[in-house]
Every structure is written in structure tokens, then in C-alpha cells.
Amino acid sequence: VPISKSIEIFGASSLNFLIIYQFLRKVALACDDVLNLMSEDLDVRREIWRSRIPIEFCFIAAELNTVDTPKASYMLVSRLTYLPLLKERLKKHIRSILNYENNIDGIWFEFNGFFLKWYYPVGVLYDYYGAKSIPWSITVHVKNYPENELECDDKCNVEFIFIQTLKEADQMKHRGHVIENLQCHDYKQLWNNFIYERFDQFYHVSKPLSENTIENPIRYIPIRVYLPDRFKFVQKLVKPFRISSESADGGAAPTAPTTLQDILPKFYGRWQIDQFLVISHGISLPFETPVLWLVENLCYPDNFVHLCICVVDR
Fold first, then answer.
1. Where would I find the Autophagy protein ATG5 UblB domain in this sequence (predicted)?
2. Domains of the chain and CATH, by start
């Protein structure tokens, strides 16, 4: 997808990273040594941390006991964060700007009639639901929390989900050998550096979780694919390299890097290359992209690669 078209679809905020990604892709594909492609690039990861989505948070007049249209709140929100982590800023807006002094039963979020699942990163929600609108307009509710649809979303639960997802990712990559060596204070550092968006400090602690070495190679790629006909991810075991049926010693041996084109039909039975885009961080990914490159450069802080399959507009 040309850069201009990607910006049109996914927003001008993706411009810098799109340019970087396209340049890296051209350089990587020109290299004869595939290992040059399978490398981590801190500039790419840092650019991801800086990415923002402009969001308009709208409120329901009846829920705030007013006849006037409540003033919306506008934020530039990190793609990597979770909606519950924005609640305190929204509560401040509700009380100070909208003069609402009653108790707030529980803030929850909706877009076009869909409950926004708080345990998915904001960037995933935007890529799936709102990628054609800037700013993304989300409805904020302060009453009638849908407990049957959404579990409790307090800050402790968000932290728990985040850490458990990290553990799951390392179990897939390194059999859990890396994460089991982290101490309690390491987990707390990871979480605090994540919520306060301190990239260098977060990366310092999390780097061992991303390493792919001869001594401790990545076994499987932690990847979640969100399907177009229902907002639910599919997760399968994906090897970083395709396996040949024979090798010199008679066993199976890795051949070429596994690409998106190799794995997507396994995730989505109706997959057709000309009908869908694969989106991550607002970028339409080339189908020849190696999944190992994705996990080393485009994974979210939870160490998973999150991919949204979107229908191509005709």
C-alpha cells in the first residue's frame, strides 16, 4: 500500500513511522543475508512508543443530568495504553469542566454501539474500529456499567492482565525461562515505566524478553490476529522459520523465514490476499513481512504482535 494511501486510511500520525518502515523494508529486502532482516531496530520501537491517536471523548447529557450537550474531552492517546488508564483524566474533566458532582458508577467506553474491551490496547481498538476517523470519536458512559459484557477494569486488573500476557508471551518464546528470572521489583519497574511511557527504562528491563540468541532462540511467535467478522483474536503456534521435510542429517531443518502470507490462511479461513489488509500500529503490512521481524520490532509492550485483518474498501 503506498504511503499516501496508508496515511489516508490510518491517519497522519503514522507518517513518520511509515517512512521509516518503508525505508527499512527496502534495505532489508536488498540484503542477501537473511539475518540482517532478523534484527531488532531500536529506532522503530521508539517510534512506536511515540505514536499517538487523537481521540474525542464524548459524553451523554442524560447521564450527567444536563440538557446541554456536554463539552467533549480531547486527548492525544498512546497507541500502547489501555482505556482504563485514562479514567482519572476523564473524571477530572467530568467534575471540573462539566460540573458533575455525583458519584460515578463506573466509566466505560463505546463506539458505534460496540463495547470497547478495556483489556485490548488502544491501538488495536483503533485499527479495528475507528481507523477512518480523525479524531476518533468515543462515547464515554458514567452509568449502567455493563458487567455482563465487560469485567471489572480497575487499575490493578489492568496491571494483572498486562503482566500475565507478558508471561504468556515468554512461555511461547523461551518456555518461560526468561520471565521466571524476573523479581517482583522488575515487574513493578516494567509496569511503572509502561504507564509513564519511559521507553528507555522499560526497554532496559524488558530487553531479555525480546532476545533471540543461539543459546536462547525464539521458539514460537506470540501473535494475535483479530478477525474482521468478529472482534475476537485467534492465537496459534507460529514458528519463526518454515521447516523443510528433510535435512542433511535426515531431520527437519529451518529454511526460509515464516512470513505473513504463510500464516494468515491458518488464522482466517476466508483469507484472500486481494480482499484484506493486515494492520498493526496503523500500518498496512506487506504480506512478505517475516513474523520474526514483527515480534522483534512491532510487538506491543505486552510482547505480543497484534494484527487486525481489515476488509479492503472497493
1. 220-309
2. 3-51+219-311 (3.10.20.90), 52-141 (3.10.20.620)
Reported pTM? 0.84
Q: Which of 105, 103, 55 lies closest to 83 in space, CA to CA?
A: 55
- Decide: 293 and 37 in contact? Cβ < 8 Å: yes
DSSP 41-65: -HHHHHHHHH-EEEEEEEE-TGGGT
Report how far residue 210's alpha carbon sits from residue 193's, in angstroms, rounded to the nearest whole number. Answer: 17
> What cell was used for 113?
454501539
Tell me: the pLDDT tens digits for 112-152?
999 999 999 999 999 999 767 889 999 999 988 888 777 77
DSSP 237-303: ---SEEEES--TTSS-EEEEEPBHHHHHHHH-TT--TTTEEEEETTEE--TT-BHHHHHHHT--TTS
Residue in the block written with cell 513518520 = 16
Sign for the CA dihedral angle at 188, 174, 211, 43 comes to negative
| CA gap 65, 184 in Å, rounded | 45
How far is CA 208 from each of CA 43, 55, 165, 202, 211, rounded to the nearest angstrom? Answer: 18, 34, 16, 11, 5
Q: Taking the CB of residue 46, how many other CB atoms lie within 10 A of it?
A: 13
- Between the CA of residue 39 and those of 163, 210, 222, what are the distances in Å? 25, 11, 17
* 32 φ, ψ (degrees, to nearest 5): -80, -30
Cβ pair 138, 58 in contact under 8 A: yes
Q: 145-179 pLDDT, tens per residue? A: 888 777 776 778 999 999 999 999 999 999 999 99
Among 97-101, 121-125, 148-152, 196-200, which is the least confidently predicted range? 148-152
The grid coordinates listed for 251 are 531431520
Main-chain phi, psi angles of 255, to 5 degrees: -115, -95
Residue found under cell 540482517: 36
Q: Which residue has the cell 498496512?
A: 284
